[in-house]
């Protein structure tokens, strides 16, 4: 054997070990690569070939095999934990959605949500019910008060009639019977009476359930004028109230205005102002009133006594003074008569100066 072909035994052993280590390293690297590929396939959901199972069985004694097994256990634990979490969440969702599965919290939550949904509807219903009840009450009130026969007129009573005949007025108001009291007004009553020249107005008063009281506000007659052979009763404005056969039965004085219409006569307006100021107790005693001028007005009483009035100024004061003066004279005459003495008759009352009245 030549020296070149001789090999040092130590070197040969070392070379042999190096080759074996190199081969082992290659085998380990190859196994590690295959295991990594296997893990990747497992993560992707792919099945592992049977060859890997055989290789894994062969490498169970290695350190990497133990690491792999531990990692598999941890992965399985994580998968089981995730599965438990999903199952728990599913049970909770089932309890919340189904109150019958002993889910008190879910039942309360369901009631709360239902009440929240129904609350606006309940408020709206309350408002609608309230409005409906109010409208029904209004309709019932209108029907009862304005259209129901429960408050219809059955009796009509007329008051304040002196120039007009109350019986005739009641007959004219007959169409109002059967009409509800609330539907009758002054204008309607006045139109039925149809006496504009006599009435200043009317006043109605309802006495439920069936009585209507009509008070006439007639014009006040203050004089009788004689024209064209007729005696006409007029008020202070000269408006004709009625015609009479003679002036004897009328408790107002006769006023001479000639042929002028009383509304156009200055003498009549002057006398009318004086007569309007007189109280009814004196006016009924006046037989005639004359005004020769605006400053010379004289009244003649039914017993022949003359009242010198003067002008129409301060007529209200003159009327009060004349009333007091006539009462004093009457009282004095009564005392004198009781004493058996002759009474002094007064022929004239002069109130032209009302602050210094004179009797003659």
Automatic annotation (TrEMBL):
Residue span of region Disordered: 1-117, 331-360
InterPro entries per UniProt: Cell_div_FtsQ/DivIB_C (IPR005548), FtsQ_DivIB (IPR050487), POTRA_FtsQ_type (IPR013685)
Biased composition annotated in UniProt, kind: Polar residues: 1-11, 19-32, 54-64, 335-351
Domain of life: Bacteria
Record-annotated Cell division protein FtsQ/DivIB C-terminal domain positions: 223-329
GO terms under biological process: cell division
Record-annotated POTRA domain positions: 152-219
Signal peptide segment: none
Positions of transmembrane segments: 127-147
GO CC field: plasma membrane
Keywords: Cell cycle, Cell division, Cell membrane, Membrane, Transmembrane, Transmembrane helix
Compositional bias ranges of the Basic and acidic residues kind: 33-44, 67-90
Protein name (Swiss-Prot/TrEMBL): Cell division protein FtsQ
Species name: Rothia dentocariosa
């Amino acid at each position: 054997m030549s020296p070149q072909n001789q090999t040092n035994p130590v070197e040969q052993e070392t070379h042999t070990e190096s080759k074996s280590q190199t081969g082992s390293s290659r085998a380990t690297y190859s196994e590690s690569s295959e295991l990594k590929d296997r893990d990747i396939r497992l993560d992707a959901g792919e099945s592992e070939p049977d060859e890997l199972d055989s290789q894994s069985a062969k490498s169970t004694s290695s350190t990497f095999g133990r690491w792999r097994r531990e990692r598999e256990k941890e992965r399985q634990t994580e998968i089981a934990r995730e599965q438990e979490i999903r199952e728990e969440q599913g049970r909770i969702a089932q309890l919340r959605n189904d109150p019958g599965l002993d889910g008190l919290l879910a039942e309360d939550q369901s009631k709360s949500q239902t009440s929240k949904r129904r609350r606006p509807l309940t408020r709206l219903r309350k408002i609608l019910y309230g409005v409906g009840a109010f409208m029904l009450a209004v309709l019932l009130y209108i029907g009862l008060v304005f259209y129901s026969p429960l408050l219809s007129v059955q009796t009509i009573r007329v008051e304040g009639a002196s120039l007009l005949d109350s019986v005739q007025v009641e007959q004219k108001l007959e169409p109002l019977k059967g009409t509800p009291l609330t539907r009758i007004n002054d204008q309607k009553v006045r139109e039925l009476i149809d006496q504009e020249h006599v009435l200043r107005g009317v006043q109605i008063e309802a006495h439920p359930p069936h009585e209507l009281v009509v008070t006439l506000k007639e014009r006040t007659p203050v004089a009788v004028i004689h024209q064209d052979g007729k005696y006409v009763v007029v008020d202070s404005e000269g408006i004709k109230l009625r015609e009479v056969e003679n002036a004897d039965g009328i408790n107002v004085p006769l006023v001479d205005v000639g042929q002028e219409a009383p509304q156009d006569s200055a003498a009549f307006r002057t006398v009318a102002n004086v007569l309007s100021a007189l109280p009814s107790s004196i006016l009924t005693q006046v037989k005639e009133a004359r005004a020769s001028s605006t400053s010379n007005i004289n009244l003649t009483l039914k017993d022949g006594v003359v009242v010198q009035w003067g002008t129409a100024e301060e007529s209200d004061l003159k009327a009060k003074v004349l009333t007091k003066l006539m009462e004093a004279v009457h009282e004095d005459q009564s005392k004198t008569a009781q004493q058996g003495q002759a009474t002094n008759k007064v022929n004239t009352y002069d109130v032209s100066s009302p602050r210094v009245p004179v009797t003659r």
